[in-house]
Amino acid sequence: MGRRRGEALEAAILEAAWDELTERGYANLTVDSVARRAGTSKPVLYRRWADKQKLIGAAVAHRNVIGPITPADTGSLRGDLIATLTELGERRGPFLAQLSLLLTDYFAEAGTSFAELRETILAGRRSGRDEILERAIERGEIDPAKLTPRIASLPFDLLRGEAMMTLRPVAPEMIEEIVDTIFLPLVR
Predict the structure, then answer these.
(1) Rounded distance between C-alpha atoms, residue 57 and residue 103, angstroms
(2) How many angstroms separate the CA atoms of 64 and 121, rounded?
(3) Has residue 75 got a pLDDT over 70?
(4) 179 neighbors 165 (Cβ within 8 angstroms)
(5) Of the candidates 92, 88, 24, which has an alpha carbon nearest to the alpha carbon of residue 56?
(6) Cα dist from 46 to 6, 42, 55, 129, whole Å
(7) For residue 153, which of 186, 120, 176 has the smallest C-alpha distance?
(8) What number of other Cβ atoms are within 10 A of residue 30's Cβ?
């Protein structure tokens, strides 16, 4: 096997960083341990990422991108939200709970938050949430004047909070309550 370069090398490093993070936690992870695990050298990592924080931010973003969730398009806002929140809860609920525990030291050291990490992950791309809400506005299902940034993020924030508090996938009846009882009355 020849030397890895470019995207193959970067993917190997980011997977190694994720594996080190999940096994050791941020506080015990070192750039040296990631380099060893990836089968490369520290200078190779430092050419791509200035420090451990940037490496881990990139590893989390990479982990999020390799398993993207496509927003549902059922033809209705309610259907889109329930389908998308269900998939998020099943596929990302455990990931978010694990991530919150693993990154406590990262957030403290970096002086940042989940919101800033989310922006790094999105990297200027439109979120699935935005796609769902834009379609609903086009169909006349919601009043855009009522759709503040906080209200727009509410169903996803509530799902994330529930997953992090229970450390389990969010139950279907909880998702329906988030959509029907909390979110839809605010935007209609």
Answers:
(1) 10
(2) 7
(3) yes
(4) no
(5) 24
(6) 14, 6, 9, 34
(7) 186
(8) 12
Instruction: Specify the 3-state DSSP secondary structure of 157.
Output: helix
| Two structure tokens written together for 72 | 């549902």
The encoded tokens of residue 29 equal: 């992870």
Give one DSSP letter per residue of 65-85, joined into a string.
HTS--PPP--SSHHHHHHHHH
- Rounded Cα distance, 13 and 137, in Å: 41
The two structure tokens encoding residue 114? 């989940």
The pair of three-digit structure tokens given for residue 23, joined into one six-digit string: 């096994």
Mean pLDDT computed over 66-91: 90
Banded pLDDT at 78 (limits 50, 70, 90): very high
Secondary structure string (H, E, C) spanning the chain: CCCCCHHHHHHHHHHHHHHHHHHHCCCCCCHHHHHHHHCCCHHHHHHHCCCHHHHHHHHHHHHHHCCCCCCCCCCCHHHHHHHHHHHHHHHCHHHHHHHHHHCHHHHHHHCCCHHHHHHHHHCCCCCHHHHHHHHHHHCCCCCHHHCCHHHHHHHHHHHHHHHHHHCCCCCHHHHHHHHHHHHHHHHC
Tally the residues of the chain: 188
Pull the structure tokens for residue 159. 């799902």
Mean pLDDT of 86-92: 86
Structure tokens at 37: 């695990």
Residue 21's alpha-carbon distances to 24, 62, 119, 128, 131, in angstroms, are: 5, 13, 20, 27, 32
